[in-house]
């Protein structure tokens, strides 16, 4: 099988190992799976190694060369899987922002209409900056930038409706492009956003104060001391 090649030139032991094992699917898969018996394999391929190298090679030398080749294959496989994993964790077109000095104003009251009337000034004020509002059956929570105009309004509202103000927070916003702007099929990232962000928050042990998700936007509320680190971790794993 290798006689003609051996007559033309002699390969080194590592080259011969790669030639033989790469051309045999059974040997190759055994090495890639980490189940090969190096000594038994060395004994089996020794005659071919001797023919290709043009010298009689010691079993120990062949075993060492096989192990190095196996380690290389396994490392290449791990790198490829890691690269695929990294690519699958990217959100195409994702944009991220970090906003500091956020306050959390929570109201527990059934008369939400009155609260909204008082907060209309917040929503209509051009200088109010970015804010997010979450409403459930029994709770209304407003996240807003801690600026003087907002502070005055929410302080009044919190006193009247027994609201609780929490300070020292930051906000991370992750936004995907509007699918209506894409003439092609909807990007699968819209379905994966919740899963990907949740996995990263859990795996990286990022402490959250609050969070809410929409198909094209995720908002995470964290303490100021955790925000910068969390932002960098998320940015590195999610954005291209």
Protein described:
- With 240 residues, the chain is α+β, with helices and mostly antiparallel strands.
- The chain is 53% helix and 20% strand.
- It is built from nine helices and six strands, in the order αααααβαββαβαββα.
- It has helices at 3-8, 13-22, 25-33, 38-53, 59-88, 112-124, 148-160, 189-203, 224-238; strands at 95-107, 131-135, 140-145, 164-175, 210-214, 217-223.
- The longest helix is centred in the N-terminal third of the chain and has 30 residues, at 59-88.
- It is rod-shaped.
- Mean pLDDT is 78; it is low at 1-8.
Describe the structure in brief.
This protein is an alpha+beta fold. 53% of the residues lie in helices and 20% in strands. It has two domains: 3-88, no CATH class; 95-238, VC0802-like (2-Layer Sandwich).
Q: What is this structure's SSE topology?
A:
Layout: H1 3-8, H2 13-22, H3 25-33, H4 38-53, H5 59-88, E1 95-107, H6 112-124, E2 131-135, E3 140-145, H7 148-160, E4 164-175, H8 189-203, E5 210-214, E6 217-223, H9 224-238
Antiparallel strand pairs: 1-3, 1-4, 2-3, 4-6, 5-6
Helix pairs in contact: 2-4, 2-5, 4-5, 6-7, 8-9
User: How many distinct folded domains?
Assistant: 2
CATH topology of the largest domain: VC0802-like
CATH superfamily of the largest domain: VC0802-like
Quote the average pLDDT. Answer: 78
Alpha-beta content class: alpha+beta
Assign the CATH architecture of the largest domain: 2-Layer Sandwich
- Radius of gyration, Cα only, in angstroms? 31 Å
Residue share in helix: 40-55%
Query: What profile does the largest beta sheet have?
Result: 6 strands, antiparallel
Distance between the termini: 48 Å
């Amino acid at each position: 099988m290798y006689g003609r090649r051996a007559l033309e030139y002699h390969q080194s032991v590592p080259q011969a190992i790669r030639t033989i094992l790469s051309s045999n699917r059974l040997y190759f898969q055994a090495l890639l799976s980490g189940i090969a018996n190096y000594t038994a394999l060395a004994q089996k391929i020794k005659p071919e190694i001797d023919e290709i190298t043009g010298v009689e090679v010691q079993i120990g030398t062949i075993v060492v060369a096989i192990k190095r080749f196996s380690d290389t294959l396994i490392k290449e496989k791990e790198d490829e899987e890691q690269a695929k994993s990294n690519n699958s964790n990217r959100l195409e077109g994702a944009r991220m922002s970090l906003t500091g000095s956020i306050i959390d104003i929570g109201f527990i009251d059934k008369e939400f209409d009155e609260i909204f009337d008082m907060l209309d000034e917040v929503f209509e004020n051009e200088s109010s900056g970015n804010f997010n509002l979450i409403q459930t059956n029994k709770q209304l929570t407003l996240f807003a930038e801690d600026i003087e105009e907002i502070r005055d309004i929410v302080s009044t509202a919190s006193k009247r409706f027994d609201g609780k103000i929490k300070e020292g927070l930051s906000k991370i916003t992750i936004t995907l492009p509007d699918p209506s702007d894409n003439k092609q099929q909807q990007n699968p990232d819209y379905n994966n956003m919740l899963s990907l962000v949740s996995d990263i928050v859990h795996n990286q042990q990022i402490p959250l104060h609050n969070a809410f998700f929409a198909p094209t936007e995720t908002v995470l509320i964290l303490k100021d001391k955790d925000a910068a680190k969390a932002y960098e971790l998320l940015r590195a794993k999610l954005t291209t």
